[in-house]
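Case study: Peptidase C1A papain C-terminal domain-containing protein.
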Amino acid sequence: MVVPGTAVPFFLSAKNQGKCGSCYAFAFISLLEFQYAVQLKNSTSLSEQQIVDCSYKDHGCSGGYFSNTFQYLQNNTWQVNGAPYYPYTGINSACAFRSVEGGRIQFESLRYIKIPANNIAAMKQALADYGPLWVSLFIGDQTTLTYKMISSTFNNYKSGIFQVNGCPASVSSSNHAIVIVGYGVDETTGVPYWKVRNSWELRWGDGGYFKIQRGVNMCGIESGVFYIARTA
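Here is what the predicted structure looks like once written out:
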């Protein structure tokens, strides 16, 4: 996936959040990296650690939510350090953001839009018009046998379309944030899917990505959907 008319990729290689519950930060930064690539026709790696340490309404390595992270970015006057300048450590630390030339990216004023739940047409249109979507879903836990099976299936995903039974679909049940980057239909089975970027490094899934059934709100992936756009 490249910026139209260039050889510039929207994203660099899939990243790795490690044992820190910072998926929300990785998903959010993915959207900013896309904005950077589109606006400047160049790829860059931005700092997830800045979000972990500095977004005070989020909870560092214990999770966070899109609107809280966006509010932090707005309060920080749309400034984000580059990843080399503020590298990822995967632990909670004091905020070390510095607004210095060469170490930070200054975005123009941005806005975000929340797409109503289960509005597949709006999600597809937003992908075409504004780029990747921040979404959350339930990927299992250890509380019930069914949820353990969901967790195992997701953790061990390698290829194909992720689809499981017994998965809750409410936003309140979601426990992982990821980024939808595209969609399609499986040529063999005819099952529609979303293509999703995870933050569990290249060795997980299909080069860091996975496909999940589209149009049935599988595990809540169509319940809490956001995108970022430049302010008109």
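For the exam, be able to explain this: The longest helix spans residues 23-40.
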